Amino acid sequence: MKLSDDVKDTMQVCKTGFETRTQFREQLPKIVENIVDSCYDEECFEHIDSQLIPSRESVIEIVTRVREILFPGYFTKKNVDPVNLRYQMGQSVDLLFELLSEQITHSMRHECLRYKQPCIQCVERGYEETLTLLGSIPTMRKVLATDVRAAYEGDPAAKSYDEIVFSYPGIFAITVYRVAHQLFEQGIPLLPRIMTEYAHSITGIDIHPGARIGESFFIDHGTGVVIGETAVIGKNVRLYQGVTLGALSLPKDAGELLRGKRRHPTIEDEVIIYAGATILGEKVVIGARSVIGGNVWITEPAPPDTKVILETPRLIYK
């Protein structure tokens, strides 16, 4: 069959395109070699190792599963009722045990081998620490119940407890924090921070798992809230969006010197901190029942029952 001139032209274009692609692809092996070489550059970071690093995807699944257990019936695909509660809870706990123990083991093994630490029997520790976390769930549920009630009492826009549990970003961030904090207190590396940074990416609320936060804690709206590692927050505290409980500016080489030491403020019971307030430094203690106004900058302590506000700005209408 004789080909038309149009078909011949099309075939030539396709052939030319294929040859051009091949010419470009021939450059890939050299690029790969350069990338591989950079993996051995001490100034760069890599994790080329036979041992698995903790999986972020698995940690997200752990957050999902533990949330189902902390708030039974809210986030499961199947209906949970008094007849199947024990069965459903058994299934959820068993699955969480397998997921969490594996990731704890990976975290501990990673630390041991990568930083040449003494063996701590990481597989056995993975099971033990998972049982400790699971055993803390009844207490954690009671504390989270106070957080939900605080949200309902502090927000007139809330129509029900269900609405808060289902949809409030503050409750999600606090839930993840309370799980991560328990693991942090148990000395589990990596996982707590992966958990809270996941919540941070979803809600815009950044709570370090090392912070110590009392019950009945409410974050209203929440976007932009930052709570540092060594911050201490009492009971019945309410924060609004954009609040920072941070550290003072540090010199360039202060990371090693201050790592693990107090750097963040203490907020005592029943304090309200309004939007945009910045409170910095370990010497700052905001006394009980104080009210901190919006957009203030605080680096000094405030006694109990104090109101800290900015002078009313002079507005110009044109």
Topology:
Layout: H1 5-25, H2 28-38, H3 56-70, H4 85-114, H5 122-135, H6 137-154, H7 161-167, H8 169-185, H9 191-203, E1 206-207, E2 212-213, E3 218-219, E4 226-227, E5 232-233, E6 238-239, E7 244-246, H10 254-258, E8 266-267, E9 272-273, E10 278-280, E11 285-286, E12 291-292, E13 297-298, E14 307-308
Parallel strand pairs: 1-4, 2-5, 3-6, 4-7, 5-8, 6-9, 7-10, 8-11, 9-12, 10-13, 12-14
Helix pairs in contact: 3-4, 3-9, 4-5, 6-8, 8-9
Question: Mean pLDDT, nearest integer?
Answer: 89
Order of helices and strands: HHHHHHHHHEEEEEEEHEEEEEEE
Helix vs. strand class: alpha/beta
Task: Let me know the number of strands.
Answer: 14
